[in-house]
């Protein structure tokens, strides 16, 4: 199997992009990724795109053909594949692109992600997102997506003593990081006080514990490692790509405070890379809700189970700490255009490992991990990248 | 890159399966495929599923996790990936599964397809299907999906003298084949007269020119060719997997009577397989509408451009003819559960190449081709299989 590297990356500004369509976002990020990677359109022989719910958000399926088309690549008849695993659709696109290059079927592949979420009125977006959970056995009985994560949070607090303030610290840290990221949806810092006073969504989660509705797109360009230096002075090697599944519904899990899909994907990824947890310099993890980041750093093996709550409060996961988490601002502050998130994580990692992350640069970053979750952990993707 | 073979296959009965949910269909076909391939659940290390529009048809996304879950594989945390390319979602799942095995990342992979289409009322299904076309530049202006294919048919008739009766002959042949297929949605034969008197949908296409709304699921099991004989006495080798894209909207094409995505995918597939058109013993092609089969056999290179209309009328494409097409009954008679169709084509080919197709068996079939189209040709997949 061939080793695969990223030679370029692009990401649009995340936010409420009222004047831009899904097509506009794809074109914008595609141009950025191509310019950054020094490849011409003619060289591209594969496209993968993560998109959760074009069918509901913009009434458009067949997103692979659409992005090939609006990128001008349909004239070259480039194979273009949409993949979907709810909020993990972007990470999934990255993995499928790696497999396409590793297999030898493709040489220069774009892995992209896009979601245009603001073209619908309120209830439609919430309902579209609920389709990530189990429609028949969760949503039908009234559970919303935040309600499911709220149950995880409540049990985590009960079982491990995680506090309301510790949840808030995750949001505070990620807004701080987002305030230094020019593509971030939210550019303002917040305080624990502000989080605790924000409106309740699903007890104990408040508005400022939740990632927002976001428009955005991101793309990275992959080639076999052995030709990566032809295009880039600083290619980023993909040391591991791992994916795991779990039950769709929370109530079928052995333990809802642990996302077993994350545990298994992490185990596989560290095995592939031949690395230990201490070798990771920074990580982008799936903080769709603040409890998500706390569970993630536990399930990825960076801290003991039950210790995740303390991490932000004690400084471990801040930039300058031992293991900076979500330097981009995470889903919470940078925004969460569902299908794009997994690719944005890779984009942030490319900047960090190149030393191009500006004010939020992690000093001496050599190896980074990205972690993308679908639904409440029905799918998890873990990638390990190094400069 | 590793050679890949199919060791087993399963397919549900296609039709209006009012009493079965998407889950039920997946479980039914999964059990059939596993029993047929002599693998145990524990050996499976990858799942791919083609599904066009779970979000619209059953309000459920995250279909990869769902099928892993209801197949009992989430306990093993098997990676499970949904892919989508409208009506080509099944063929796309097959190709991604081939890549996963070829890459070395997976050894025993299920490629499945499923669509549950009858849980919605009339307009919703038509609108969900229209999402395969260009929502902004075709559907918004009133084009339905049959209307787009009707334009292809009208120009084909004008340019090449293809007749209304020749279109009807495709339906007559495919219903004849379907009448011999136990899984087929329609078990009755029809006549040219009946097609010509059926209600007009979009001139010149009538109801009996169109594939139906169908519930169904199909699955095949893939392994590296070198271990295929461990599981099966008659493994089916995948000689080629090719995918191509084209513009999403018809009006952007150089010529709407030719699906360039089919032309390019076929060229790549024959190149990979090192075969010529005359080496193909039978094919399953994408007859979502009767004109689709006519264009397909031209664009695949089996007959000259413009000569496709005569093929069914002159007997070429009937069982017993020189190149039997759609022995399963095709999308027209066997049914078209969108995401499952591409896998059902592979299932039919497995039966034919094993000599297990009963009354519709093509004598001495050794090499077969499957052709699956998304939308009006925005995506095309071609696979070549041999015993």
Describe the protein.
Two copies of one chain form a homodimer. The first copy, chain A, is α/β, with parallel strands linked by helices and 387 residues long. Chain A folds into two domains: 140 residues, Thiolase/Chalcone synthase (Peroxisomal Thiolase, Chain A, domain 1, 3-Layer(aba) Sandwich); 227 residues, Thiolase/Chalcone synthase (Peroxisomal Thiolase, Chain A, domain 1), CATH 3.40.47.10. Helix content of chain A is 37%, strand content 18%. In chain A, the strands form two sheets. Chain A has a nine-stranded mixed sheet, sandwiched between helices. Chain A has a two-stranded antiparallel ribbon with strand order 5-6. In chain A, a hairpin with a 4-residue loop joins β10 and β11. Chain A is globular and about 55 Å long. The mean pLDDT of chain A is 97. β3 of chain A pairs antiparallel with β3 of chain B.
Q: Short summary of the structure?
A:
Two copies of one chain form a homodimer. Chain A has 387 residues and is of the alpha/beta class.
Notable characteristics:
homodimer; 387 residues; alpha/beta; Peroxisomal Thiolase, Chain A, domain 1; 2 domains; two-stranded antiparallel ribbon; 14 helices
Draw up the topology in text.
The structure is a homodimer of 387-residue chains.
Chain A: E1 4-11, H1 22-37, E2 46-50, H2 54-57, H3 63-70, E3 80-84, H4 89-103, E4 109-115, H5 122-130, H6 145-160, H7 164-178, H8 192-197, E5 200-202, E6 205-206, E7 216-224, H9 225-231, E8 236-245, H10 260-273, E9 282-284, H11 290-299, H12 308-313, H13 330-334, H14 341-354, E10 367-374, E11 379-386
Parallel strand pairs in A: 2-3, 2-4, 9-10
Antiparallel strand pairs in A: 1-7, 1-8, 4-7, 5-6, 8-11, 10-11
């Amino acid at each position: 199997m061939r080793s695969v590297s990223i030679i370029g990356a692009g990401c649009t500004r995340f936010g409420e992009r009222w004047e831009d369509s899904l097509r506009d976002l794809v074109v914008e990020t595609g141009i950025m990724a191509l310019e950054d990677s020094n490849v011409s359109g003619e060289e591209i022989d594969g496209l993968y795109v993560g998109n959760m719910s074009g069918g509901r958000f913009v009434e458009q399926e067949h997103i692979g053909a659409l992005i090939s088309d609006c990128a001008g690549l349909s004239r070259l008849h480039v194979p273009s594949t949409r993949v979907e695993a709810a909020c993990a659709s972007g990470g999934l696109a990255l993995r499928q692109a790696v497999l396409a290059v590793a297999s030898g079927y493709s040489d220069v592949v774009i892995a992209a992600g896009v979601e245009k979420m603001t073209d619908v009125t309120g209830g439609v977006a919430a309902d579209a997102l609920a389709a990530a959970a189990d429609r028949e056995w969760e949503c039908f009985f009234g559970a919303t997506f935040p309600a499911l994560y709220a149950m995880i949070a409540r049990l985590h607090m009960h079982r491990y003593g995680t506090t309301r303030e510790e949840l808030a610290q995750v949001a505070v840290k990620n807004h701080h990081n987002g305030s230094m990221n020019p593509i971030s949806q939210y550019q303002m810092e917040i305080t624990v006080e502000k989080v605790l006073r924000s409106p309740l969504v699903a007890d104990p989660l408040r508005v400022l514990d939740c990632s927002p509705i976001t428009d955005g797109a991101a793309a990275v360009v992959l080639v076999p490692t052995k030709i990566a230096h032809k295009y880039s002075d600083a290619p980023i090697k993909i040391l591991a790509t791992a994916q795991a599944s779990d039950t769709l519904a929370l109530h079928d899990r052995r333990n809802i405070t642990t996302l077993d899909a994350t545990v298994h994907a992490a185990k596989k990824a560290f095995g592939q890379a031949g690395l230990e947890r201490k070798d990771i310099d920074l990580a982008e993890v799936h903080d769709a809700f603040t409890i998500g980041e706390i569970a993630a750093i536990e399930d990825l093996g960076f801290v003991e189970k039950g210790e995740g709550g303390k991490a932000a409060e004690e400084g471990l996961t801040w930039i300058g700490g031992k293991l900076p988490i979500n330097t981009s601002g995470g889903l919470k502050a940078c925004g969460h255009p569902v299908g794009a998130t997994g690719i944005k994580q890779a984009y942030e990692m490319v900047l960090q490992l190149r030393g191009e992350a500006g004010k939020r640069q992690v000093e001496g970053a050599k190896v980074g991990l990205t972690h993308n979750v679908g639904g409440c952990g029905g799918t998890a993707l873990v990638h390990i990248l190094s400069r």
